[in-house]
Design brief:
Blueprint: H1 2-21, E1 26-28, E2 32-34, E3 38-40, E4 46-51, E5 60-65, E6 73-76, E7 88-92, E8 98-102, E9 107-111, E10 124-128, E11 134-138, E12 148-149, E13 157-158, E14 164-167, E15 173-174, E16 179-181, E17 184-187, E18 190-195, E19 201-206, E20 209-214, E21 234-240, E22 244-251, E23 258-262, E24 268-274, E25 279-285, E26 301-303, E27 311-313, E28 317-319, H2 322-326, E29 334-336, E30 346-351, E31 363-365, H3 370-379, E32 383-387, E33 398-402, E34 408-409, E35 417-422, H4 423-426, H5 436-450, H6 454-471, E36 502-503, H7 506-512, E37 521-524, E38 529-534, E39 540-545, H8 554-566, E40 575-581, E41 584-590, H9 598-601, H10 612-632, E42 636-638, E43 647-649, E44 655-657, E45 664-666, E46 672-674, E47 678-679, H11 687-692, E48 694-696, H12 697-713, H13 729-738, H14 756-769, H15 780-788, H16 809-817, E49 820-821
Parallel strand pairs: 26-34, 36-40, 47-49
Antiparallel strand pairs: 1-10, 2-7, 3-4, 4-5, 5-6, 7-8, 8-9, 10-11, 11-12, 13-23, 14-15, 14-22, 16-17, 18-19, 19-20, 21-22, 23-24, 24-25, 26-27, 28-29, 30-35, 31-33, 32-33, 32-35, 37-38, 38-39, 39-41, 40-41, 42-45, 43-44, 46-48
Helix pairs in contact: 5-16, 10-12, 10-15, 12-14
The chain binds 2-acetamido-2-deoxy-beta-D-glucopyranose (8 copies).
One 2-acetamido-2-deoxy-beta-D-glucopyranose is lined by residues 255, 275.
């Protein structure tokens, strides 16, 4: 017996040695995979073998992308018990179980629970499929009948084709459980699963604390899930039958690599591989803003990330405890203003553009109509709200809620929710606690939109015109520019002092800049003057001297310094050091000999030195830089003043974004903010910012779109005039695009050097970025993907500021309400 066993092993060893010469995707009971050997899927996409995660020396059996570096593991077998040396062996037992054995100690660290079908399957084989699925099947049987598959036991990664959800017959639940840390694949406390208590919804918990939930599925997408709409890359599928409920996705083009991943911090991400840069790019993050967190505003509260404070009570409700509420302690939520008087005096109030409440304990019937649904809710006095389930094909299905409505927020989706309310609350208007400025603005909006008399239009138009001329290059001295520090004081909680910045002494800087002599002055930024300097070793620097009138305290200065120092990207200008002596505060940057982009693209002679490929390189670099600010850095930063003069160029004409004087950081889950003072530069600011003072990353996307069109055309947006019509650059570009003549936008000298398809694509992307509605504009991650991939782009809608000789409606309100501060370009 012993001899036989050894012979058996020897045979397996021989076979596996043979096997490593040619890559294989299958092992039989006679073969083993030792540490160092791998199985490779038939299309060479995935590879299975032993690996060590992060800085750990432990060995785990896992599956990763074969051609991607750094190694990206998508599945791990022995998550909990590692092999502590390199003696690991992977094999398939005759009974169909997959085994990971530490052969030095002769222990089985992991085995699959393969359920054998009767009669006993002979000669089972394990195969790594092209989908990344590791399966066990009987030799010769078709793929449909797997005895076991790794897709049924997901870890932290959700690959195309995998089912996320429950088998309602067997009860098998496919959940994601992320790694403890990048060094340790053992299951953490986070878990994402399909919650089937009530209508199914996608849920994430930590321990047993609910963190977030998305759903219900409305036929297109999970209600309230950001950026989840179907597109040209991904197809979503949601199946809910008697037998199973699951979600899965497929990629239209398998050469695109995309995965959904829950990282050890519990963040829910979709990542796409960008071949050009060899990086995983965050395509979306389920936690877009503070309202993504479960029930931030308490029961019957409503979260709106665009408002400050974000929480309010749903209409018809009032704070449970108004003292707590006004102190931004929202967890106790809201109660009805007037108690219900069922069955006599109640009605239903429709809510539009809200994420439907938590569907736990809800009741549903998927074939009822909205009318039947209304009646069902009316009849049952404990029913507090109802809605259609599926909004495709005009709406169908019925969802009923009982008791408090939890986790409601505003979203850009049109799925109506009907909430039961006492008659007297049905007509109540918006809560009256709004700051008066808002009310004033609303009145102004109403007034403006009602007044359609020509006289008024002409009047406003001429005011706007005169005013825009006046302010374009004027810095208003008495309007302190909102500086970066005001938003950053919370940074003090990030106290890791790992910045390797140099300190520059005042004497050193004075010497370098010839005592801040006027001929060394490069220009004036949001903070104060900028000087060029040469250090003793010949190194050239740019010195930003914070003006003493900009109200910057030393603490804020330090905060800001810490923060900017942590931003490091090849497309951001690099901070070298700082100086604070007495009341002098200075930041020292690398010096950019080619100065700024506007000096090239808008200059007749210099623009000829920028051929198409250079320009494309610059566009692409700017996009990467902004993307980094928006989401890849540890913070979420909106620059707010992207323009050609703030794009500096190094020796090799690589673009570097500069001047964070107006930048604003968003707290973790903030998404949009509001300011009473609009800052920025005419021609680059987005309509919603100009009108409402609302800015978000989409305002930067808008400015980026303008930049793209300027770089392509060599024309300035502000001050653009065209002989034929009164278009601005955006409208002109859009018109040409619609007429199929977009190439005419290209400045003449580039027509030879350009790649037509790339130019058209750039214009197309530029137009998508300047669309009127912020929600229509792509995020920077989509923009970068659009540049990197060749998928079909959606048609752009009419851009903002589509003048057509008419009044630019967006400005009329800002004239009354907001001051526009345009900074003098350097
Ligand atoms: C298959 O054999 C292995 C090794 O002897 C054992 O650990 C496992 O429990 C068996 N599985 C089944 C389903 O019998
Ligand atoms: C490993 O286990 C097998 C059977 O379980 C046994 O025959 C063998 O002696 C063990 N080897 C070691 C080194 O313990
Ligand atoms: C195998 O099944 C047993 C009992 O059903 C369970 O305790 C164990 O966790 C399962 N192991 C795996 C790897 O799924
Ligand atoms: C698998 O089946 C094929 C025929 O169906 C047979 O030729 C082959 O020997 C089998 N392999 C094993 C390991 O049993
Ligand atoms: C898939 O993408 C690749 C590379 O982006 C492209 O070459 C190919 O044409 C695409 N295939 C389809 C069917 O779209
Ligand atoms: C990825 O990029 C490399 C060069 O960086 C290129 O050789 C390869 O063909 C690209 N692969 C795909 C799938 O586009
Ligand atoms: C759902 O509603 C339809 C139409 O009202 C009805 O025929 C069906 O029996 C209901 N199903 C359940 C499970 O209540
Ligand atoms: C109202 O609905 C709840 C939940 O489905 C149910 O328990 C209760 O019996 C219903 N009440 C009436 C009066 O139908």
């Amino acid at each position: 017996m012993e001899v036989l066993h050894n012979l058996f092993l020897l045979f397996g060893l021989l076979l596996s040695i043979l096997a490593t010469c040619t890559s294989q995707d299958t092992i039989t009971v006679d073969q083993v995979i030792r540490d160092g050997d791998t199985l490779v899927s038939a299309d060479e996409m995935y590879e299975l073998g032993f690996f060590s995660p992060g800085s750990s020396r432990n060995r785990y059996l896992g599956i990763w992308y074969k051609n991607i570096s750094p190694q990206t593991v998508v599945w791990v077998a022995n998550r909990e018990i590692p092999v502590r040396d390199s003696s690991g062996v992977f094999r398939i037992h005759t009974n169909g179980s997959l085994l990971v054995i530490a052969s030095s100690s002769n222990t089985t660290v992991w085995s699959s629970n393969t359920s054998l079908v009767s009669p006993i399957t002979i000669n089972p084989v394990a195969q790594l499929l092209s989908s990344g699925n590791l399966v066990v099947r009987g030799n010769g049987t078709e793929e449909v009948s797997f005895l076991w598959q790794s897709f049924d036991y997901p870890g932290d990664t959700f690959l195309p084709g995998m089912k996320f959800g429950k088998d309602l017959v067997s009860g098998h639940d496919r959940r994601w459980i992320p790694w403890k840390s990048v060094d340790d694949p053992s299951p953490s406390e986070f878990v994402a699963f399909m919650d089937t208590d009530g209508f199914p919804q996608l849920t994430e918990e930590y321990g047993s604390t609910r963190l977030a939930r998305f759903g219900p599925w409305n036929g297109f997408t999970f209600n309230g899930m950001p950026n989840h709409a179907p597109n040209s890359i991904i197809r979503h599928e949601f199946v809910f039958s008697d037998k199973e409920v699951f979600y899965r996705y497929a990629l239209f083009n398998n050469s695109v690599l995309s995965r959904v991943y829950v990282n050890p911090q519990g963040d829910f991400l979709r990542l796409n591989w960008v071949n050009r840069t060899q990086e995983w790019l965050i395509y979306w993050n389920a936690y877009v803003d503070m309202c993504s967190r479960f029930r931030v505003c308490g029961p019957n509260g409503k979260c709106n990330p665009n408002k400050s404070p974000a929480c309010s009570c749903m209409e018809g409700f009032e704070p449970q405890n108004s003292d707590e509420w006004s102190a931004s302690e929202w967890s106790s939520g809201c109660r009805r203003r007037t108690p219900l008087d069922c069955p006599n005096g109640d009605g239903f109030r429709p809510f539009k553009n809200v994420k439907l409440p938590d569907t736990r304990h809800s009741w549903y019937n998927r074939s009822m109509t909205l009318g039947e649904c209304t009646n069902a809710c009316k009849r049952n006095c404990s029913c507090t709200a109802y809605a259609n389930i599926d909004i495709t094909r005009g709406g169908s299905g019925c969802l009923l809620w009982f008791g408090d409505l939890n986790d409601v927020r505003t979203v850009d989706e049109s799925q109506d929710l009907y909430v039961r309310m006492a008659r007297s609350d049905l007509t109540i208007t918006e809560s009256t606690s709004k700051p008066s400025s808002h009310r004033k603005r609303r009145i102004v909006i109403v007034a403006v939109s009602i007044a359609s008399s020509l006289v008024m239009m002409i009047l406003i138009l001429s005011i706007v015109y005169a005013w825009s001329k006046k302010t374009r290059h004027v810095k208003k001295p008495d309007e302190p520019v909102q500086t970066i520090d005001e938003e950053y004081s919370m940074e003090s909680q990030h106290d890791d002092d790992d910045t390797d910045l140099s300190y520059f002494s005042m004497t050193k800087i004075s010497k370098a800049t010839k005592d801040f002599s006027n001929d060394k002055k490069l220009g004036e930024g949001g903070f104060g003057p900028v000087y060029m300097g040469v250090l003793d070793d010949g190194k050239e620097i740019a010195v930003k001297r914070l003006s003493k009138t900009s109200r910057q305290g030393v603490n804020e200065f330090k905060n800001e310094l810490k923060f900017i120092a942590k931003l490091q990207h090849r497309n951001l200008v690099k901070l070298l050091g700082y100086c604070n002596e007495g009341d002098e505060n200075m930041l020292i940057y690398e010096y950019m000999p080619n100065k700024s982009l506007d000096l090239f693209i808008f200059d007749k002679t210099k623009s000829s030195t920028l051929d198409w490929s250079r320009r494309f390189h610059i566009i692409h670099g700017i996009a990467r830089g902004i993307l980094y600010l928006h989401q890849d850095s540890r913070f979420k930063i909106v620059h707010r003043d992207l323009k050609a003069s703030n794009i500096l160029l190094d020796d090799d004409m690589n673009p570097k974004i500069s001047d964070f004087g107006l930048a604003r950081m968003f707290r973790d889950h903030e998404n949009e903010a509001n300011t009473n003072r609009v800052v920025g530069t005419l021609g680059y600011i987005s309509p919603e910012y100009a009108v409402d003072g609302t800015f978000s990353e989409k305002s930067d996307v808008f400015s980026f779109g303008v930049l793209v069109l300027e770089i392509v055309s060599g024309k300035k947006n502000s001050g653009f005039s065209h002989e034929k019509d009164s278009d601005n650059l955006l409208a002109h570009a859009w018109r040409l695009f619609e007429e199929g003549m977009a190439l005419n936008l290209l400045s003449a000298h580039m027509r030879d050097s350009c790649v037509e398809s790339k130019v058209l694509r750039s214009i197309h992307i530029g137009l998508l970025c300047v669309q009127h509605h912020a929600k229509d504009r792509p995020t920077m991650s989509s923009v970068v993907l659009m540049f990197d991939q060749d998928g079909v782009l959606p048609p752009p809608k009419q851009p903002a500021f589509f003048a057509q000789g008419a009044i630019p409606r967006v400005y009329d309100i800002s004239v009354n309400e907001v001051t526009l501060t345009a900074l003098e370009p350097r």
